[in-house]
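Structure first, sequence second, as always.
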């Protein structure tokens, strides 16, 4: 006899299916591991600031927010956050995700980028900060260097190093929550130590 999941298990089945769906997005910078990190960091930021958040909406947003970067969802002329928000229902509805939470997922996704302003909802604000923080620290350096020769953000190593300098300096100012700013300070230190060592070893980046 087939074992049926009980009601509680059923509530989480959509999460397993969404992770299965996201497995197709293998990319060092915007793939499934970035999705996992952003979800975990969003929960951590919420927890450490005693913020009440909808974890389902954060989970769904985490695993969909960058799908607009990838085929078959990528669309020329449509910014990836907007594109990812456009496909939320087509991805989540077949998984049995609660219809009442769809609009929150879309709101989170639309404002997730560091250059965007999140809407005034706790989930959107902490998600925005978590996504920006994933461009900082050791992980930020790793992600940016991994783009070399595969993405026009960083066509070569020098341009990736310029991005690391720029993000270290500018991203902390884009963060909205105090806890995220604290994490940013630590990650900024990691980036600056790396940049100082690199400069030291390459005659001030002249022989990179
Ligand atoms: Fe993004
Ligand atoms: Fe992202």
């Amino acid at each position: 006899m087939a074992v049926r999941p009980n009601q509680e298990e059923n509530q989480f089945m959509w999460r397993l299916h969404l992770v299965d769906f996201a497995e197709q997005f293998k990319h060092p910078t915007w793939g499934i591991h970035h999705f996992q990190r952003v979800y975990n960091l969003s929960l951590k930021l919420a927890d450490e600031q005693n913020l009440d958040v909808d974890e389902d909406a954060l989970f769904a947003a985490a695993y969909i927010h960058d799908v607009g970067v990838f085929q078959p969802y990528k669309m020329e002329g449509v910014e990836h956050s907007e594109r990812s928000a456009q496909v939320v229902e087509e991805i989540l509805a077949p998984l049995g995700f609660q219809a009442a939470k769809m609009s929150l997922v879309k709101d989170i996704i639309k404002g997730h980028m560091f250059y965007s302003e999140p809407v005034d909802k706790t989930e959107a604000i902490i998600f925005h900060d978590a996504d920006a923080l994933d461009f900082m620290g050791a992980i930020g350096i790793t992600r940016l260097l991994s783009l070399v020769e595969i993405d026009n953000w960083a066509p070569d190593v020098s341009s990736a190093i310029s991005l690391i300098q720029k993000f270290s300096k500018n991203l902390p100012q884009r963060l909205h929550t105090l806890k995220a700013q604290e994490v940013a300070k630590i990650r900024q230190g990691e980036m600056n130590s790396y940049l100082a060592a690199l400069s030291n070893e390459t005659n001030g980046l002249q022989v990179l």
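Margin note: The chain has a mean pLDDT of 95.
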